[in-house]
Amino acid sequence: xxxxxxxxxxxxxxxxxxxxxxxxxxxxxxPGTDHAGQLARMxxxxxxxxxxxxxxxxDCLGPCGQANVVVVQPSSAGRQKGGRAVWxxxxxxxxxxxxxxxxxEAGGPGECEAPVTLTLQVIPAPTEARRxxxxx
Length: 136
Known about the structure:
It is a single chain. By secondary structure, this protein is α+β, with helices and mostly antiparallel strands. It has helices at residues 35-47, 76-80, 94-106, 116-119, 126-135, and strands at 14-19, 53-58, 70-73, 86-88, 122-123. A 5-stranded mixed beta sheet has the order 2-1-3-4-5. Strand 1 (14-19), helix 1 and strand 2 (53-58) form a beta-alpha-beta unit. The longest helix is centred in the N-terminal third of the chain and has 13 residues, at 35-47.
């Protein structure tokens, strides 16, 4: 039997959206990164979190020049406190993965601040980048 966590209606946990499109997760682009191991670690941590956060994958999220990309989406409670999705680029090593998992475990955007080292990897969402380039 599989353990399934049932959330109260409308209560969404912090969610990590892990890009696994054309560049993210590609050994040819980043041969020194264990892409499958990174995703397995994230999924195992989510499974052991008691439903506090979830992991899903996506095809290409867009900013391929900053692969690997992980979007940290706030929980319902985090969003109510003003948290918004945070795009993290260059998530290629164990330190980045550790920081992302620690933040998700602590509640994510809106619930707590991101680890300082992770803030150095924050990138604009593709729509934000397009808006900025149009203003110039």
